[in-house]
Design brief:
single chain; alpha/beta; Metallo-beta-lactamase, Chain A; 6-stranded mixed β-sheet; 5-stranded mixed β-sheet; 8 helices; about 30% helix; about 20% strand; globular; MBL fold metallo-hydrolase; Metallo-B-lactamas; RibonucZ/Hydroxyglut_hydro
Length: about 230
């Protein structure tokens, strides 16, 4: 289990990317926010001597988790059916710097996201949004015992967690985060009810590490402490 961490500069909106190494072919969890990030991770995978990825799981459809997928043309992309519908529509949009400026001018609340997209994309050559090839509704078990489970939540309707029992890791994406900035309302914060459910060993099992996309990995105790700050 390898973890390529998030960018500490929040304006860049780049989450962490996981690699679950397996001799039959590694599994990526999320694709990075651009082909450039995906190519950097590919180089680091090769330098570490890890098996080449064969599958890529989206934790949800947001751009910073999926825009790197076009740099992985030979992998099977897996995602929740609700996110697939959204990404199929996203793939038809005329992405480019001019389009980003026009959209941000029309809705200023999109500004932080769209400016970060522009920074991430030095070139649009051969860029494409890649919808999932394999879609699921509730849960999916992959070879090697990797468990993919839909949890939903307010951040994204398709939010998915990925359990790697052999490594004691639960990959969370952004599932318990508040809604994206352009949809956020005053008082929106982390989803305590969802965090509590993730800690339910009867539902998800017990894990040593709980890894969300824009924070350092947390132990179970640290997640419980986070929940306590929310009054849970």
């Amino acid at each position: 289990m390898w973890w390529y961490p998030h960018d500490e500069d929040h304006d860049n909106i780049q989450g962490g990317v996981a690699v679950i190494a397996d001799d039959s072919g590694s599994v990526l969890v999320d694709a990075g926010n651009s082909p450039a990030v995906a190519r950097r991770i590919r180089a680091e995978i090769e330098a570490a001597g890890l098996p080449a990825p064969r599958r890529l799981i989206y934790t949800h459809h947001h751009w910073d988790h999926v825009w790197g997928a076009c740099a992985w043309p030979d992998v099977e992309v897996i995602g929740h059916r609700a996110g697939a519908r959204i990404l199929e529509a996203e793939a038809r949009r005329p992405w480019g710097h001019r389009y980003l400026r026009e959209e941000a001018a029309a809705d200023p609340r999109l500004g932080p996201s769209f400016r970060a997209r522009a920074r991430a994309m030095a070139s649009w050559d051969r860029f494409a949004v890649v919808p999932p090839h394999t879609k699921f509704d509730d849960a999916l078990t992959l070879p090697g015992g990797i468990e993919v489970r839909h949890v939903g939540g307010r951040h994204a309707e398709d939010s998915t967690v990925v359990a790697v029992p052999d490594s004691g890791v639960l990959l969370l994406g952004d599932c318990f985060y508040p809604p994206p900035y352009h949809l956020r309302q005053p008082g929106d914060t982390y989803d305590g009810e969802l965090i509590r459910s993730l800690l339910d060993e009867g539902r998800f099992g017990r894990f040593d590490w709980y890894v969300d996309s824009h924070h350092q990995p947390r132990t179970g105790q640290e997640v419980r402490e986070l929940l306590a700050t929310l009054g849970g």
